[in-house]
Amino acid sequence: MTVWNRLEPLLSKVQKPARYIGCEDGAQIPEHRPQAAAWLLGYPDTYEIGLPNQGLQILREIINEHPLGVAERTYAPWTDLEELLRANDVPLFSVDSHRAAADFDIMAFNLSAELTYTNLVNLIDLAGCPIRSADRDPHHLLIGVGGHCTYNPEPIADFVDFVVLGDGEEVVSEITEVVAAWKVAGKPDRISVLRGGALVGTVPNEGVTRQQLARMMVGRELLLERKRVPVQVGETLLSLNDVEAYRITGTRALYHLTQTLRGGEILGIAGVSGNGQRTLAEVIAGLRDLRDGHITLLGADITAWSVGQRIEAGLRYIPEERMHDGVIQEFSVAENIILQDHVRPPFSKSSFLDFKAIARRSQDLVREFRIKTPGIDTPIKNLSGGNIQKVILARELSNNPTVLIAAQPTRGVDIGATEYIHQRLLDQRSQGTAILLISEDLDEILALSDRIAVLYEGEVMGVVQRDETNAEELGLMMAGVRQAAE
Hints:
Layout: H1 3-11, E1 37-43, H2 54-65, E2 69-75, H3 79-87, E3 106-110, H4 117-126, E4 142-146, E5 162-164, H5 169-185, E6 190-195, E7 198-204, H6 210-218, E8 236-246, E9 252-262, E10 266-270, H7 277-285, E11 292-297, E12 300-301, H8 307-312, E13 315-318, H9 322-326, H10 333-337, E14 348-349, E15 352-353, H11 355-368, H12 385-397, E16 403-407, H13 415-430, E17 434-438, H14 442-448, E18 451-456, E19 459-465, H15 471-478
Parallel strand pairs: 1-2, 1-3, 3-4, 4-5, 10-17, 10-18, 13-16, 16-17
Antiparallel strand pairs: 6-7, 8-9, 8-11, 11-12, 14-15, 18-19
């Protein structure tokens, strides 16, 4: 039975069924050519295509004029049809030929205000494709995105295979030619690695492991699989009770969120960017007010406490935006290390700073946390992203926190710094610290967490044990599918 035969009965049950039929105004279905690179271009809504999406229409024409390409369209289904598609196991489809998305080679989207990161994950799942790029096989769709929401691609890096920035005509033509060549001759059989401007080596594609490639990239052995030693989980140190909060824009970011965090535990917060993660970190740290609910730390209600009071009580915070919220760029490494403690002994005596004590502490932490810097007086803005993150990590961990909020702790840092930061977080877990890990990197969440909660539009879709879940289950919850009741 074709997709259309399964789809047609469902259209009578939805609003505006014509939006899913396509071929409007006598348009012709592009000729299906098996050797051509077949693109499926995702539009937010056939009735609401505005100027931001005119680029997709232009790309569609370019691809169909290319001798090695063919392009059709798909539209993000409204909730009524989405529920019917899932209930009847009908995949996402082309509105032109009504072929299943899986019959195409590439699915590409224009990420704009109309098509958000969460919609993207949802559509990938509806297409029958693994949500994470790392889980896809050569026979799966290539997932690509473009548009002004992709100029910071990190929030979607786990889910897409390529990002087109700026004028995509030339890039799309190149991708079309490469994919068409793959269909005829197969994918490339060698991988070359460059490091420091020099060729490190070339290895066969067949059989090469992530471990081998990582070693070539950084020049040493890396521990890609984190070793989480068993830890006796302690008492509840942090509680969020019916928390509700709003963004600066006035839109609701968190809705009746209730969660607990215990000593010696890492609770991972997964979710597509923009679903309340940043607001969650800020309300716990005291940087944003609650609209409703309560937060308790060590049994004390800290809802009305200042940031300073929370720090004194043992709450520490690694912020998402390190250059904006984590450091003062013009300050030195040493000054950033003692930012939170400069009014306390031994760094301050009778309102005067003790520069010798500050220097000793800073030099000790630079050595302990392997911070690469010309000196402790170097402006922190001159350091690499990974070393700036290590300065923040040193400052927050050196005071033996009771509760640590780590928001996107490895975003934008190299693979070696990522390995180091992960190990420090696991060491802190072993010391009994309760850690809230907020990350858009599913590999990071799965590698470090004991429990995982998934946020979608400010609500928790489910909480699972790390050893009892997988990327597919987490991906579905990230797309708004609530965890099934046991």
